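Question (not urgent): is this output format expected?
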Amino acid sequence: MKRLFPFLLALLSLWASAQAPEGINYQTIVRAEDGSVISFQSMDFKVSILLGSTSGTAVYSEEHSVATNANGLASFRIGKGEVLTGSFSDISWGSDAHFVKLEARQTGTSTYNLMGIEEFASVPYAFYAETTAASEGMWQQNGNDIYFMDGNVGIKTDEPTEALTIGTNNRIQLSTVKNSLTYGAVMNLRWNSPDAKPGIHFQDASGDSKIALSAYEYETYPSDQARKFSIATSNLSGDLVERFNVPFGENEVDISITDANLKLMDGNTFQVGTESNSGLALYYSDVFIHGTKKMGIGDKDWEEEGTWENAQLEIYRANSNVELLIHDDAGTNDIGLHLRNGENDWKMTHDGDFNIIHESSNFFKITGDGDVGIDVDEPIAKLDVNGNINVSSGFAYLVGGEGKGSYLPVNDDVTNGDVLGLNPSTGQLRKFESGDIYMGIASAKAGFVSNYEKGREEDSGFALVVSKGQIEANLTQLQVNGRMVFTVDGESIGVLLANGKLYLK
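Got this back:
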């Protein structure tokens, strides 16, 4: 093994005016006894700061373990090594002269060799070949250009973490007098590979990116090249998600948002197109209009006139027909209009038939054949009604029920089919007894009712009495002779038909 030959190469100190340095960049060349450089060798260096003279007291000492390069050059920073004694930040540099003592050994050996003792200068200095400095990537000059090929640069910080780091609470000012987008740029971000994403990131105190601005190109299916500028923000997991996207390199672009909601606040207007150049709005998601806000469709001056009275939605045409279309193109689904008042529901639906439904009951239906049903699920006539029809004036022609009847007051519990008579003594109706005046048969419904009032069918004080037509009767309360039917006291009231019903004369 070659024996170390002490050779002190250079000392470079970085001073701030009237302040002690936080670190001193130091470089030295290690040579063997024959003068040849020791390349690519792991070395241990012991640095001591001596006070007053070359034999003064060591106020600070530290160790560094570094490797030499191809030229035998070793570089380290005094003040950033492994501390042996003292504190580098406590050195009183202005109180007296200070000297640096450098000792070295090959890593793995036990004995340090003295390489030299030098006094600190008041300004940085260096005594090494220009070629060696260039190989180490220090600041270089090329004409009017200056560049740095290694490490990071800090401005108002001694611990740069990126190629250029600005200290806390400091600003960069960029200005221009150019008046075009092309030449007025004060900052250029460029991508040098097809998949690069140059961007600006906003980070928190931990260095995590929360917001990013970026522009890049990407390939879409099957092989189209797309381009876009995007604004991204972090989600709850801390991942950056693109929210706002603007394509570039096209004459016409579609601005899009993803994983985000677009909100217009404080009464601002969202307009698509103009009167002379109409636009097109396409929605592939839900659209909500909150509170008392309204929607108008048509050629009305909506901003000036608003919608009609309390209408939340108005479709208006001044000189043409107007209609609202609700369309199921497949023809397999129900379509409809739902009206809700509190918990009370009415629906108008179209499933081939037109229906008006209240609380799940189909009250009104028009079939595709043109039959109309009221409280009838399957109407069989142009008008099919399940229930009573009230005609307040004019004439009524009805089909269904059991004959012609009237609601009459009773003072007896009667059931459908009972024979009813008028008690001559009291003038009240009851189940027929001998000597009563025959009135008719009690029924649940009649084809024609002469005196219906709403709710009478539920009133136990009235009975619907049928006096003419076909009706089901309780024959045990009558006398039957062949086909002739009589009251219990012999009054003829009708005939018994083959269908088992009593036909009242």
